[in-house]
Amino acid sequence: MKFGYFDDEAREYVITEPKTPYPWINYLGNEEFFGLVSNTAGGYCFYKDAKFRRLTRYRFNNVPMDVGGRYYYIKDGDTVWNPGWKPTQTDLDKYECRHGLSYSKFIGEKDGVSSELTCFVPKGTNAEVHKLAIENVSDVQKSLKLFSFIEWCLWNGMSDMENFQRNLSCGEVEIEDSVIYHKTEYKERRDHFAFFSVNAPINGFDTDRENFIGLYNGFENPQVVEAGMPRNSVAHGWSPIASHYIEVDLAPGEKRELVFILGYIENAQEEKWESKGVINKTKAKAMIANFDTTEKVDAALAEIATDWKRLLGVYQVSTGDEKIDRMVNIWNPYQCMVTFNMSRSASFFESGIGRGMGFRDSNQDLIGFVHQVPERARQRIIDIASTQFEDGSAYHQYQPLTKRGNADIGGDFNDDPLWLILSVSAYIKETGDWSILDESVPYDNDASKATDLFGHLTRSFNFTVNNLGPHGLPLIGRADWNDCLNLNCFSSDPNESFQTTNNKMGRTAESLMIAGQFVLYGREYVELCKRRGVDTAEAEKQIDAMIEAVKNYGWDGDWFLRAYDYYGKPVGSKENEEAQIFIESQGFCTMAEIGKEEGLCEKALDSVAERLACEHGIVLNNPAFTKYVIEYGEISTYPAGYKENAGIFCHNNPWVIIGETKLGRGEKALDYWKRIAPAFREEKSELHKMEPYVYSQMIAGKDAFKPGEAKNSWLTGTAAWNWAAISQDILGIKPGYDGLIIDPCVPKDWNKYKVTREYRGAIYNITIKNPSGVCKGVSSLAVNGEPVQGNVVPIQAADSVNDVDVILGDAS
Ligand code: BGC
Ligand code: NOJ
Question: What is the pLDDT of residues 267-284, one digit of tens each?
Fold first, then answer.
């Protein structure tokens, strides 16, 4: 069953049934100001940091689900309704939510009144703009009463939810003309305030929640709206809100457009006040003036569309399969940009107060958007690397507002350092900007400790070299990429977190996944060294030794082991009672092609197909854990089939997919991808539950109570990795140091497709033909009609437009 449809032309997902199986959300903003918005206009917004600078309040996991947002109540006689259906849930004659690229539109119609609410964050602006058009489509005069509503958060998303003895006495507002200002704590340590404005005279307002809603009413029936009369309340403490009251009289056919702005302003210390206790509103007024007409608003919205057209234009494919095309051309890159902006901080599964920017997460996210915004990727790399420690290890996360690393969700994840090599090499391959390696970058944000970025990579590489275990394999530390495989933790206290509890930090537990990573990214490091003229003998020796260690101690007969535990016993082996095989080491060791000549990769992936793959994707381990294994930690706490315990962790499926492309198995690679790609799951929306336009972190696996049900959509490395898998390894257009590498791996029956790729300032119109029906291998390549040896398209002059003709076939 579907709850809407893809409008590829408009680049929108159109939801036509408000009761989706879960709130289906979108993101507003692409720079410093962000909003999360559900298909019923729920959600909240923040400036830079969902923890430290939250503007509006939101209550997660609430009953009913998803209440609180940007609400417009239209009172037409005795009927009250909202353009986005919620919170009144009044049946609408028409409902549509159009989630587009960085904007959402809500179209509601009731009793001859139609409304269209468009929400977005204009470029260069720290505000959400809401354009509300109300039209009388009946043949009688309409006298409507309109109430806007938002609820302020007292800035710190965390204390707002817990420190009531303080914060219920702090709230302060100011009202001037049609603008409601939120100035809690402005007089002391804050130099910022927020406001909610409308570009029309108002007939009243409310700023105190209890007055507006009433203590015994809810968002669905605020007492002021029921009465049809505002109270002009001024909040003193308790819960400040902002609500405008506007009388809208419309003749038949008449339409009125209003612009509401929910803005954020910072003032310099010496410019904070206009007079004693009165905010200096100069900047707010300037911001309001920028959008005081619908023309200005429409122009700002058009600017965003132009931006997206340009960003998405960097890679456009036409395969003839609309589902593939819409994933590659629209939704996957869009999600990648959102993960770039948010890391794992703010979604409907991440509260915004839990996790900031993850070290490993952000490095991996980068491979999904570096082609879109290389300059911002560069800055991101520097920000991330600046939190690294001198021994190469890393804080697991940093806060976006401060850019300082913290250990709030633990540390000592031994995979972390290696991901920096992935992101930096991806950046250079995309841009050719080698100068990034010379940037001076601090350690732990301490400028007195700094080396060039290349030095950071050396330390990343050496961190593994310096932390090998008894088999010469990398020590796992607290955990590797799989946060929940806590081999040193031994937790028996239900009140401690697996992430932060004291680790034994033993030097026995080793990870085969990090081993694969080390070989793969170690080779990348060697390549960078060579091109910098740095001697690579020692590094190559280490990599060779790692390959040997994997072959000697990491092979279980039919697949790669996953790890060695604290006692030195194999994990992910036939010897084990449960969890005999894991996905991560199969993925990483085959991506690194360890033992490929001896057939290990093929064998490992055949075992994946046999033991881990199912209809909805590839599960993480098999058999699932059914008991808690203290020496394995969190992984064995989850019910079978969920999360890291045999769930389909969509993040690691592409590792196998890429592995399959290394073996040249095009059918398998595409088939695995389609199992998890959301557009291919749209028809099963009822089961899948999450948005059909973005990937979810996890789909319940074959051992679960409800296989196929997804959770945790949006903020997941799944976006970036699937982008890499489909665009680079299946469709086969891959940036390299010396040009665009053409290396498709597709099903044999694909006979032709086209890709347009913008790369280092030039455009490449690539046509790939497959006359002899192979999966892999480029038999001929021509650039602008000139034959080229091999499969690398040399870099062409900036601004040039080039035709690239590729024939697949026997590569020799
Ligand atoms: C989850 C992981 C997550 C980690 C960090 C674990 O409970 O299963 O997926 O990355 O917590 O918050
Ligand atoms: C989610 C985390 O964000 C990511 O860093 C981790 O690798 C996965 N969980 C797997 O445990």
Answer: 999 999 999 999 999 999
